[in-house]
Write a structure and sequence with these properties.
Blueprint: H1 3-13, H2 17-26, H3 32-42, H4 49-61, E1 63-66, H5 74-85, E2 99-102, H6 107-114, E3 120-124, H7 135-148, E4 152-156, H8 159-163, H9 167-181, E5 185-189, H10 198-210, E6 215-217, H11 229-246, E7 251-253, H12 261-274, E8 287-289, H13 292-305
Protein name: Deoxyribose-phosphate aldolase
Pathway: Carbohydrate degradation; 2-deoxy-D-ribose 1-phosphate degradation; D-glyceraldehyde 3-phosphate and acetaldehyde from 2-deoxy-alpha-D-ribose 1-phosphate: step 2/2
GO molecular function: deoxyribose-phosphate aldolase activity
Length: 317
């Protein structure tokens, strides 16, 4: 079967519940022990100093600098936007981050701060983090964020519907949100900590991509179990295999619990060894993080100067 024929066949999968269910349950099962052992093995890889400097700058460029708190204020969002543009004001060679991620109500605050900077503006939507709202509310949430200036939307799937086996419902919801995004990119959050099994993670990954997601994302960061390396491995295998079958590349974003440079490097190694070097780019891989950036900046300063900056040298977000 040609790539065009395969792509057309994949497009037809979501047209009926029976076809979608048969496809998702026909995916190869995940070898839990194998996935965990491979992730553990890859996490032990070390990199040399020159490669580490490159990896740190790449990781900074991949950060979605995030604030998603009920106490967020316009002043905090403006300060975060300034940091996104110039993470280290003392070092103009330090790259900007990929995006700032905020609630929809804060998009109008961040938009003028980021205009012309090259830093994307992402907004969570669709009743984040629970996803428990009617579809028309989710679509209105999405349209409002895009109209206010967001060029990326992070939506969360209805885990209850997915776990109940209502795959067509989840598919149609993702497709509708994608349509509401217009030209904005859509990141689909699976909330993998609530999906219970690696097989469910694989199925949800494929479901999100089949429905039109531009990225698949592990977590909201609001549940106890967020991104893990084995889950990352499973999702990266899914984006790799999806591109092989469809010809369309989909990005990946782990979020929640990634706090140190050492953690970030482990994820970059897993990306390179599982999906390949094509994903080592901010267009295709992001870190959903709020505390990671400061550690990256501290390690970057140490490599350049031989001295650690104090933890209070960079702003606490």
């Amino acid at each position: 079967m040609t790539a065009t024929a395969t792509s057309a066949a994949l497009a037809d999968i979501g047209r009926s519940d029976a076809t979608l269910r048969a496809f998702l349950h026909g995916l190869p099962g995940v070898d839990q022990v194998g996935a965990e052992q491979r992730a553990a093995m890859l996490s032990t890889r070390s990199i040399k100093t020159t490669a580490k400097a490159w990896a740190i700058d790449l990781a900074i460029r991949m950060v979605d600098l995030t604030t998603l708190e009920g106490a967020d204020t316009p002043g905090k969002v403006r300060a975060l936007s300034a940091k996104a543009r110039r993470p280290d004001p003392a070092d103009p060679s330090c790259p900007a981050v990929a995006a700032v991620c905020v609630y929809p109500s804060m998009v109008p605050v961040a938009a003028p701060e980021l205009a012309g900077s090259g830093v994307h503006l992402a907004s969570v939507a669709t009743a984040f983090p629970s996803g428990q709202a009617p579809l028309d509310v989710k679509l209105a949430d999405t349209r409002a964020a895009v109209a206010a200036g967001a060029d990326e939307i992070d939506m969360v799937i209805s885990r209850g519907a997915f776990l109940a086996g209502r795959y067509q419902e989840v598919f149609e919801e993702i497709a509708a949100v994608k349509d509401a995004c217009g030209s904005a990119h859509l990141k689909v959050i699976l909330e993998t900590g609530e999906l219970a099994t690696y097989d469910n993670v694989r199925r949800a990954s494929w479901l999100a991509m089949l429905a039109g997601g531009d990225f698949i994302k592990t977590s909201t960061g609001k549940v106890p179990v967020a991104a893990t390396l084995p889950v990352t491995l499973v999702m990266l295998e899914a984006v790799r295999d999806f591109r092989t079958m469809s010809g369309r590349q989909v990005g990946f974003k782990p979020a929640g619990g990634i706090r140190t440079t050492k953690d970030a490097v482990k994820y970059l190694v897993v990306v390179n060894e599982t999906a390949g070097a094509d994903w080592l780019d901010p267009d295709w891989f992001r870190f959903g993080a709020s505390t990671l950036l400061n550690d990256l900046l501290m390690q970057r300063t140490k490599l350049k100067t031989g001295r650690y900056s104090g933890p209070d040298y960079f702003t606490v977000d």
